[in-house]
Amino acid sequence: MGGVTPKDQGARPSAFAKLFYFMRPDKGKMVLSLVMACIGEALGMVPYVVIAVLAAGLLKGTLSLEAAAWLSIAAAAGQTAKFFCTWRSSMMSHGIAFRALRSMRDTMAEKMARVPMGTIVDTPTGTFKNRFVDNVNQLEDAIAHFMPELPSNVFAPMLAMAIVFAIDWRMGLAGLATIPFGVLFYLGMMRGYEVKMARYIKSEQKMNSTLVEYVNGIQVIKASFRSSA
Length: 229
Prior knowledge:
The structure is a single chain. By secondary structure, the protein is mainly α. The protein is 84% helix and 0% strand. α2 (27-43) packs across α6 and α6 (125-167) packs antiparallel against α9 (193-216).
């Protein structure tokens, strides 16, 4: 691959800068994927708004059968549009992710061609397999799911809270009261996360290396049994 790599840009780039480097040909598509994900989340609220209108009409006694039918159609249309926007956003982000992963592996393969043969021989095959397959595959979630879904999942509750505040500010304040509890439980869940994740990654790398070396040695084991027989 030609061009300037993140390492050549002077200051040490962040993890996101390195990730965006491999996504640079699809930057516009990722923005479109994010917009469609947000639109899908907004359209997903249409059925809830319809239910509120139906309930208000029933309580006031002003709801007619024709109005209920049209509102039901609007709810179904909103849910269908949400499914289409979310599906299209997911398809675009996954395509971007797979192209970025291919670019990463191409770059790694080009770099391996410049690595001394002694280093290649001394490094277990499972280590390369873990780096080329498992480590790179882990970035798929960050590109295909994290980037479009996190902003849209934040946008949806913010839009919902704005609607609640517009209806009654007291209900909005009551809804905000649950946020500190959520943060508290989240902090408890993330306690010791880095240590646990480091232990998990180390164990996974050791297991992958052992499995690959075992599979590669099966032919030798078979040949040994055949010669002894």
